[in-house]
Amino acid sequence: MTAQPQTMMFIGVGNPFRSDDGAGREVVRRLQGEVPPCVKVLEETGDGAELLESWKGSEHVILVDMVLSGAPPGTLHRIDARMEKLPVWFSHSSTHAFGVAEAVELAREMDDLPPYLVVYGIEGLDFSPGTHLSPEVAAAVPGAANLILQEIMQISSA
Amino acid sequence: MNAKSFKVDLLARVEGEGGFTVKIKDQSVKQVALNIFEPPRFFEAFLRGRKYNEAPDITARICGICPVAYQMSACQAAEDAFGVHPEGFIRELRRLIYFGEWIESHALHIYLLHAPDFLGYEDVIQMAKDYPEAVQRGLRLKKIGNAVMTLVGGREIHPINVRVGGFYKAPSRKQLLTLEEDLKWAREAAQETVRWVATFRFPDFQRDYEFVALCHPSEYPLIEGRLVSNKGLDIPVNEYEQHFVEEHLQHSHALHSAIQQRGAYLVGPLARYNLNFEKLSPLAQESARNAGMGQECRNPFQGILIRAIEIVQACEEALQIIQNYQMPEHPSIEVVPRVGTGHGCTEAPRGILYHKYRFDERGLILSAKIVPPTSQNLKSIEEDLAEFVSTRLHLPNDRLEWQCEQAIRNYDPCISCATHFLKVRVERQ
Asked: What is the C-alpha to C-alpha distance for residues B314 and B95, in angstroms, rounded to an integer?
């Protein structure tokens, strides 16, 4: 059975004007046109409240953001948010300190998590103003995009 | 022990970085200081030499929560200097995008940041377990405010469609009407918000503030009016600097504002409400009365209730604008720069936001001055804390700290906005 239109969402989060913070959105841009038409693709700034409203009603949600956990730059993390709490290094969004991690935990408390929610994090290095990814992160983007695409294809053809 | 002090190093649930210190000795409060350590941002300095039409977009970057306020005050100041005044549906679109910002900002503050204080939760995540419906309502309200900003402004954070003279592109009537159903829902949800917030327990605390807000002959204050207070101030915006001064204090990266000869004053929802109750719509007035509110309110903890009443007002006015809207023939009026000084003042969600620019004959900015609402309220916040703490000295420190944080959050302080004021002095030895 193919997933119903609009019930699968692929979201890239970040600020593309802050170098590596744009990594998540770069992955999304790379996969535009590659993902099946039933997948709704979104780019978001990372405002947690906005995210909660965006993924409302979606059965499968895959989100990709930049993280800073201390791992080598370019490392790809994958968290099944239904199974485990998002580590604190996902809560770097600034505005009123309400970012991706807070959105996920808030939805969990309200028993309103999407039935399938996987959050990918690409380890960043440089967050200075600018639109270029640092070499380690840029090199990791194609691999991350491939892995995520595989997961999307698996779900949508299941 | 007679002396004690406590310190909160990093305030949670506010925009930006600040802390505060209270020093108590011999059962009296010796010192209260809001420490604003968010780094200075120098916006006024880098506006110099930029063109007049860059000011709305540059100053919008001061704040991710209230960018429209910066755009509106900047446009108004430039238009004042160049002798133009957009009217009709251009003015209505400005009011619409601004109400979107009020809805978004107030909903965020009420539901996600301040309600947990009143209901005894560490944060909204803890609160959501017991109040999922309320949190969902708050999130949807915020989203609708964002949708209004996105439709009129091109995007919700730092809109790109606002210009001196009006807009780059005006939406069609059909486009605006897509917001109608959501706004009708929001108007109901706003009334429900008032009812919900009215059930909170508010600490018994009142002060004799000098309230300062815009006053317009027929509108609840938003984008235009004279500056009025309950203690005799009644001036046009261009006399702002004759009555208000800014001081630099050592403990803060933000300047503190004061009214000359009188000192602290208060801007924001409480001030707007006290000075303009009769201009609220009948529905907003009815919501207020049903919540047990009179025409006056001097309890800063009830600011959350007034924010909820202002969401009712914003939704109602936004709906009216949409229903009456006709797409203007031109999205903006012609602006021809000339030598001059312009003043702008509009009501950001947190209170009056003042801009002043001096331009040369090409419209290049020679000097800029920006006074955001939070720096105007800092003195009042410190005075509130001193008085509040002095009546609660018997409380254990953790309880007192909690209540002080709650008292600061009454103002929904935007520290990021307040810290682009710092006079830098380099001393060489």
From this structure: 9
Q: In terms of Cα–Cα distance, which of B91, B165, B82 is closest to B334?
A: B165
Find the residue in B nearest to A45 (Cα). B157
d(CA B328, CA B299): 43
Distance of alpha carbon B365 from alpha carbon B352, whole angstroms: 22
Give every CB contact of residue A56 below 8 A, 6+ residues apart in sequence.
none
Q: Please state the rounded mean pLDDT for residues B64-88.
A: 95
C-alpha–C-alpha distance, residues A123 and A23, integer Å:
9
Q: Which residues of B163-199 are buried (b: 16+ CB within 10 A; e: fewer)?
A: bbbbbeebbeeeebeebeebbeebbebbbbbbebbbe
Tell me the chain B residues in contact with residue A45 when contact means C-beta distances shorter than 8 Å: 157
Q: Where are the domains of chain A?
A: 8-156
Does residue B17 lie within any of the structural domains?
no
Q: What pLDDT is stored for residue B172 in this prediction?
A: 97
User: Which runs of E-coded beta strand occur in B306-404?
Assistant: 340-348, 351-359, 365-371
CATH 3.30.565.10 at A8-156, yes or no: no
pLDDT higher than 90, residue B185: yes
Over residues B154-171, the pLDDT tens digits come to 976 788 999 999 999 999
Task: Say if residues B355 and B73 touch (Cβ distance below 8 Å).
Answer: yes
B15 to chain A, closest Cα gap in Å: 5
For A109, which of B13, B65, B129 is closest by C-beta distance?
A: B129
